[in-house]
Specification:
3-stranded antiparallel beta sheet, 44% helix, alpha/beta
């Protein structure tokens, strides 16, 4: 089997893969760990190419639009702020993740203001011409291709509005919350269709709607604002290509919302975070309805275990989640400098050689 055949056989359960497919989440490391990767390997290749992961991913081409987002803030902005296409402003920190401290919808008071905002053009077809070419090239090389739609609704919404403001909107200002969510959803629907048309094998959705203790909101609130919108995004992709695989990333204690994901059309659950979920229960309850992707803890064995413990955990997790084939092995999140190089090598070696 080549990598693509292996991934599709595992996730679709259309046959028995010759071994468990694997990757490192998001195909790379955080910046400081990338520096270590370069030093240790001496390669100019990406980690996915160097380690020969079974997946590749594609992203929309850069936008042609230019927007001055400074007009949406009631304060002077620092010189080092940078804005993404949604208008979310970030400043660098001493750590691996920038500080997303500027939220362009924060001071808006009506749904009409939300409607009038210059929403990004992620749903325009010109941005997927290269996606289609890259997808075909990767597939011809034998890799399964993922179209990325992380931060699908909830995370983009709160980053645009500010977390505490958006959570209050869900209760006190539902018109504003719906306007934000619906505008994001309309963009995601277009993206899902364009990814499916481009021929990607997997569309990776993702929203961290739970903490490590459970759902951040009531089920009623989740159903009111998010569940049906996720379902519409999935349906849009499936209308174009019924065979495209739908993946959902959700860190945290996800056990109480798995049924909601399945009802919306999710087929693959990621990352099945082991520190706060009962993996045996999840496998027993959902194995006939879901495939799994992830499973190796980045808060536990990867930073704190020995290389031998990492190898043992890879084998143990594979024997549980992959014993019937529906599993892609990966760390539960992107790897960072808290994880020593020896443990990364141990994960790769175990994933390549022992996960069968």
């Amino acid at each position: 089997m080549n990598s693509r055949e292996r991934v599709l056989a595992a996730l679709k359960r259309t046959g028995t893969p010759d071994k468990t497919p694997f990757e490192i989440s998001w195909g790379a490391f955080t910046p400081r760990l990338m520096k270590t990767f370069r030093e240790k390997t001496g390669t100019d290749l990406s980690p996915e190419e160097y380690f020969d992961f079974d997946t590749r991913y594609v992203l929309p081409s850069p936008t042609k639009t230019k927007t001055d987002f400074s007009q949406y803030f009631n304060e002077p902005l620092p010189n080092n702020v940078s804005f993404d296409e949604w208008g979310i402003g970030a400043v660098p920190t001493r750590y691996e993740i920038p500080d997303y401290k500027f939220h362009p919808l924060e001071f808006m008071g009506t749904a009409q203001e939300i409607e009038n905002y210059p929403w990004p053009d992620f749903g325009e077809s010109y941005r997927y011409t290269e996606v289609e070419k890259q997808t075909k090239q990767y597939q011809e090389r034998g890799f399964a291709v993922c179209g990325e739609l992380y931060q699908t609704i909830f995370e983009t919404a709160w980053l645009m509005r500010k977390m505490e403001v958006f959570l209050l909107d869900l209760i006190l200002n539902p018109d504003i919350a719906h306007a934000i969510c619906e505008n994001i959803t309309q963009i995601r629907i277009k993206q899902a269709r364009l990814y499916a048309k481009a021929g990607v094998d997997i569309i990776r959705l993702g929203d961290d709607i739970v903490s490590q203790q459970g759902l951040m909101m009531s089920h009623e609130t989740y159903n009111t604002f998010f569940k049906d919108r996720i379902k519409r995004i999935i349906q849009a992709a499936k209308e174009v290509n019924p065979d495209v695989i739908i993946f959902m990333h959700c860190c945290g204690k996800v056990e109480d919302v798995i049924d909601d994901f399945i009802d919306a059309g999710v087929e693959v659950l990621n990352p099945v975070q082991p520190e706060c979920n009962n993996l045996e229960m999840i496998f027993s309850k959902y194995n006939n309805r879901l495939s799994f992707w992830g499973g190796i803890g980045v808060q536990s064995v990867m930073p704190h275990g020995t290389p031998d413990e990492v190898r043992a955990k890879v084998q143990e997790t594979n024997e549980l989640l992959g014993k019937e084939g529906g599993f892609l092995l990966a760390p539960a999140h992107i790897l960072d400098p808290a994880i020593n190089w020896e443990n990364i090598v141990a994960f790769i070696d175990a994933a390549k050689e022992k996960s069968k």
